[in-house]
Amino acid sequence: MSKNPVVHFEMPYKDAKRVAEFYKQAFGWSMSDAGKEMGNYLLAGTAETDENQMVKTPGTINGGFYALETAPQPKEPSVVISVDDIDAAMKGIETAGGEVLDKPQDIPGIGLWVSFRDSEGNRVSILQAKR
């Protein structure tokens, strides 16, 4: 079994309604707005999930879209990597030459999340799922 799989993707949007309609029509994804308290983050359902919002089919991931004009993070697409211990993972990122971009944020019902830059300058995120 692989360690620390990619479990989520993120991309920016300029127009929430337009991007939601595009992915619904083009790929049949479910798109739902997480609300103002979550920055109008759009959740993209590409795979069936269980009661804990984890995908049922191994190898599949879901994702989301964030508002381009209000996003504090960089404006490029990103992937999210699952980790067992976010503190240990942040230390490993820094030891390997990466840069953790902020303090971990609690995503209600999901877990702790933080973005980092890898050795090539790519923005990537890690997630420690709620236990």
* The CATH fourth-level homologous superfamily: 2,3-Dihydroxybiphenyl 1,2-Dioxygenase, domain 1
Mean pLDDT: 87
The shape, in one word, is globular
Tell me the number of helical segments per DSSP (H or I, 4 or more residues long): 2
- Percent of residues in β-strands: 35-45%
Straight-line N-to-C gap = 20 Å
Instruction: Output the helix-strand order.
Output: EHEEEEHEEEE
Largest sheet: 9 strands, mixed
The CATH architecture name reads Roll
Radius of gyration, taken over Cα atoms and rounded to an integer in Å: 15 Å
What is the CATH topology descriptor?
Answer: 2,3-Dihydroxybiphenyl 1,2-Dioxygenase, domain 1
> In CATH's first tier, which class applies?
Alpha Beta
* Count of the domains: 1
Q: Poorly predicted ranges (pLDDT <50, ≥5 residues)?
A: none
Give the beta-strand count: 9
Classification by helices and strands: alpha+beta
What percent of residues adopt helix (DSSP H or I)? 10-25%
